[in-house]
Amino acid sequence: MDSRKVIGFVGLDELGLQMASSLLRHDYAVQAFE
After folding, report:
1. Residue-wise over 12-34: b if at least 16 C-beta within 10 A, else e?
2. Is pLDDT at 20 greater than 80 in this prediction?
3. Residue 20 — left, alpha, or beta (φ > 0 → left; ψ -120 to 50 → alpha)?
4. What is the distance between the alpha carbons of residues 28 and 19, in angstroms, rounded to a whole number?
5. In terms of residue numbers, what domain contains 22?
6. pTM for this prediction
7. Among candidates 4, 33, 1, which has minimal Cα distance to 17?
8. How far apart are CA 8 and CA 19, in angstroms?
9. What would the DSSP string read from start to end of 1-34?
10. Quick check: 11 and 17 in contact, CB under 8 A?
């Protein structure tokens, strides 16, 4: 079972992309939608 926290983003601009990248580096699962 995957116990990682999942964070969702709707519309990735430059700031959202940086935040998503940071979360991925810290072992969060990220789902992004344009």
Report:
1. beeeeeeebeebeeeeeebeeee
2. yes
3. alpha
4. 11
5. 1-34
6. 0.70
7. 33
8. 11
9. -----EEEEES--HHHHHHHHHHHHTT-EEEEE-
10. no
CB 33 within 8 A of CB 8: yes
22 band by pLDDT with thresholds 50, 70 and 90: very high
Dist CA 2 CA 6 (whole Å):
10
User: What is the rounded CA–CA span in Å between residue 3 and residue 14?
Assistant: 28
Q: Which residues pair with 33 in a beta bridge?
A: 10
Domain count, the chain: 1
